Amino acid sequence: MLSRSRLSLALLLAPALLWLGALIVLPHVELAILSLRKMVGPRDYAFSLTQYATFFTEPLYWHVFVRTALMSLGATLLTLLLAFPIAWCIAKIARGRASSALFTLCLIPFWVSETVRTLGWMILLRQSGVLPALLVRLGVTTVPVEMLYHDATILVGLVYGSLLFMLIPLVSSLESLDNALIEAAYDLGAGGFATLRTIVIPHAAPGITAGCIVVFMLTIGNYLTPTLLGGKNSEWFTEQIYTQFITRFNWEQGAAFGFLLLGLSTTIVVVGLRVTGQRFGDVMRRT
Amino acid sequence: MALDAVSKSFAEHRAVDAVSFSVERGSFFSILGPSGCGKTTLLRMIAGFVAPDSGTIAIGGRNMHAVAPNRRPVNMVFQQLALFPMMSVGENVAFGLARRGVPRTERTRRSHAMLERVGLADAAGKRVDELSGGQRQRVAIARSLVLEPTLLLLDEPLGALDLKLREHMKIELKQLQAAFGTTFVYITHDQSEALVLSDHVGVMNRGRFEQLGTPQDLYYRPATPFVAGFVGANNRIRGRVTAKNGAVVEITTAEGWVLHGHGHSGGNLSVGDAVEAFVRPEAATLARTERDLSTAEPHHTGKVRSLLFDGSNSSVLVGERDTGREFRIALPQTGRLADLKPSETVVFSFDPARALCFPAPA
User: Fold this and answer.
1) SS3 for B233?
2) Which architecture, in CATH terms, is B233-334+341-359?
3) Of B47, B80, B100, which is closest to A189 when you measure between CB atoms?
4) Do B70 and A199 touch (CB under 8 A)?
5) A143–B contact, CB cutoff 8 A
6) Residue B53 pLDDT more than 80?
7) What is the number of alpha carbons within 13 Å of residue B256 lying toward its C-beta?
8) Is A190 in Cβ contact with B70 (below 8 Å)?
9) Of A239, B119, B246, B293, which sits 20 to 30 A from A48 (CA to CA)?
10) CATH 3.75.10.10 fits domain B2-229
């Protein structure tokens, strides 16, 4: 009996394990090997840490690396601030059909491909686009201003693209909050802010953390949005990786950057969990 | 606390309809009614979660109009208790004090003292889910009482407990109320809770108070057929008045059973009126032979249909001999007639003064 249930478990897990093994573990092993060697002659490679050393000695790479991390953290925080009131409306204020209608409204943009959505932002924000023309018409500016290719533009695009991934865990964690707890806090003398701080946020903490992890990971690894909305100035770390692999044909360097990015995002998530006192297992159960 | 003509409607439904009453300081007042009678709405208006459409609520002589729940001298014990799971028991009790800006050491001292008074001295560091149902109950009450409210509202707090614990908590609640001297307003659909606990009870039905009085008043002198039917067990018999002799009326049921009752509050019943008579199971005497019955009371004969054994609350369902009309009679507590068998023939009688007759609703 036991061996049979084990067999069926193994069969059920097989596709997932194959997927993980063939598409994630194997390429990473290959990349790890690539990142740890250097070319010493034509078709002749030797073990070396040069690729990693280059990263630490070349200030540009450093700069882009830190900038990507900070911008991603900023985008995550903005997404949280924006998503929280929306999640509150969906989970606590709207009822029944209104609530699912609101949720659908948040979902609809995601039926369109990310590229098309980002191009939409470009149509709105470019110098000859809709928003600059509107500002001229309203007399706010005399000439159309270029609204693309700023850091703020990148943030707008990133927040817009990540909102849903923050909303889902937030809504589900707020929905599970018993309204009586909020009323009880209110009844015991707490105002709106005190209730938010002492009751709502502690209850929603695993959902908040889950949303933040997902959004942060999506953002720091995003390539399309920073490239399209930030143009040449975007200086996003994924672009550096792309450049090494595709433009420079320096796979060794690209692989090393890939691992550095993986290490960076993992470190930030671990630190974040530590600081907020959350456990990874609890958080993942909420997602 | 005093309520004056308080009303609240939801859409077309009038949940609370011009309710007025006052509660004396330090007393235990219950609002008793079936579910959906508007009692929860009434309580939420007192707490401040719902604003009345009209009427005024005054607590301690102060009008509570537009005063938010967190500013009222009122605290509430919620139906599901609503203890904060993210905090320890001690933090739960100290929550209200913290919101008032009481310093931490003072807060800890007062919450510990309060936990001690409810018999949970060593529970302060525990998590809420480590406590039993009864202990949680006490924490919920302690959490409110530590704020020394003028008024404590309790929304069916015993509803979630099992029977044994409910019986126990009933006594404990009454003792707590006596010990603290706080005014309690308690809502429940369980008449036994209301009767046992309260100094005064308001019976509520369809948004209105049917009767307001002491538990004894409600039980022995119900003012309306609803109260007679809702509070305690009662035999409800419909019929028509066929004769009248002072306050005593002769009633004949549709099946032709003739019995005697007393008109409720004076003799405003006249021959031909449709009435409802209420006879409590313990008001009737049951015997095997007519010799054992009082000669002053009219006698009836019937057949035992079924025995409802429930310890000291045991009763028998008797079918009246000629009409088959069902009548419930309490078994004497002495154990006499404990050997009664179904389909045995028995006789019974009751004092017409204890058969209250109300004009039947059309």
Assistant:
1) coil
2) Beta Barrel (2.40)
3) B100
4) no
5) no
6) yes
7) 4
8) yes
9) A239
10) no
- Indicate yes or no: CB of A184 within 8 angstroms of CB of B100: no
- Residues paired with residue B259 on neighbouring β-strands, in sequence order: B251
* Secondary structure of residue A86 in the 3-state scheme: helix
Please report residues of A whose CB lies closer than 8 A to that of B143: 188
In the stretch 180-209 of chain A, residues with CB closer than 8 A to chain B read: 180-181, 183-191, 194, 198-199, 202-203
The pTM of the full predicted model, rounded to 2 decimals, is 0.80
Using a pLDDT cut of 90, give the percent of chain A over it. Answer: 38
* Domains in chain A: boundaries: 50-286
Alpha helix (H) residue ranges in A188-235? 192-195, 201-220, 224-230
* Residue A169 CB-density burial (10 A; 0-12 exposed, 13-18 middle, 19+ buried): buried
Cβ of A190 and B99 within 8 Å? Answer: yes
pLDDT over threshold 90, residue B143: yes
Question: Using CA atoms, how far apart are residues B175 and B118, in angstroms rounded to an integer?
Answer: 10
Query: Rounded CA gap, A233 and A219, in Å?
Result: 17
Provide the token pair at A55: 């990263």
Least confident piece of the model among A85-94, A119-128, A211-220, A277-286: A277-286
Report CB contact under 8 Å: A188, B84: no
pLDDT of B117 higher than 90: no
Cα dist from B221 to A193, B187, B277, B327, whole Å: 51, 21, 13, 21
pLDDT digits over B221-248, tens only? 898 889 998 988 889 998 888 988 877 8
d(CA A82, CA A74): 12
Whether the CB of B69 is below 8 Å from some CB of chain A: the reply is: yes
Say whether residue B169 is in contact with chain A using an 8 A CB cutoff. no
The pLDDT of residue B214 is: 94
CA distance A200 to chain B (A): 10
pLDDT, one tens digit per residue, over A232-272 is 778 899 998 898 888 888 888 899 999 999 998 899 889 98
Residue numbers in B near A198 (CB within 8 A)? 84, 87, 95
Helix (H) or strand (E) holding B235: strand B235-245
